[in-house]
Sequence to fold (256 residues):
Amino acid sequence: AHQACRRLIDEGRIGQVVGGAAAVISRGMESWHPNPEFFFKPGGGPILDIGPYYVTQLINLLGPVKRVAAVATKGYPTRTVTSEPLNGQIIQVEVPTTVNGVLEFESGANISLTASWDVWKNKRIPFEIYGTEGSLLVPDPNFFGGTPQVTAQGGDWQDVDISAHPFGVPNRPLKDGRSVADYRIIGALDMAVAIREGRPHRASGDLALHALEVMEAFGRSSTEGRHVTIESVCQRPEPVPLGADESVFVAARKAA
Fold:
């Protein structure tokens, strides 16, 4: 689904991207994780836990980030575990659990990102991308599928067909009865093919470093009360070729 969104942006379907909003919001980890304490200690929090999916996807869609501004707060001083086997354990919260930030991209676009574990219910969607010629709704980057929607200027929302792209077919059932597309190991295959071809792989170290610096900038910006300029650089990963399965990587090599 996200490769389909990337293609729409690259083809200019929504024009020049001006802004957007991203949100990853829940009540936290203590209701389901068997040992959730580390989520609320230094190195934890929603930005460093689930943020990599969102920040990396934004870099894939829009390119590298120029600077970050953010405000962070701690919703509750303690958390009570309700999952087993530590039901009833009290966790002292030592990190911010609600973070609101703005990412300014080298392209000129700016995207707001909210990450929170302090919310009981909400109606936010993972991504809204706003362009000069339309808008794009992007599915949850924690998985590979979903149905993007696009609009041309003020027209109606139209579902985006992702069937021509690989890795969008649901392959993993969840406890709530839903089935999702979850192909996380596919990056290792791309790396293996890239090593043989002598080309950069998509989930590169430069990309990971850039995403990490962006995520750490949220905390720095909030603490220091200023914009934080991102010093690392990376290239947008090459889009994944059209196709049905992992053979797209080999097909791309043959075509080259």
In short: Helices lie at 2-10, 46-49, 51-62, 186-197, 205-224, 247-255. The longest strand covers residues 17-25.
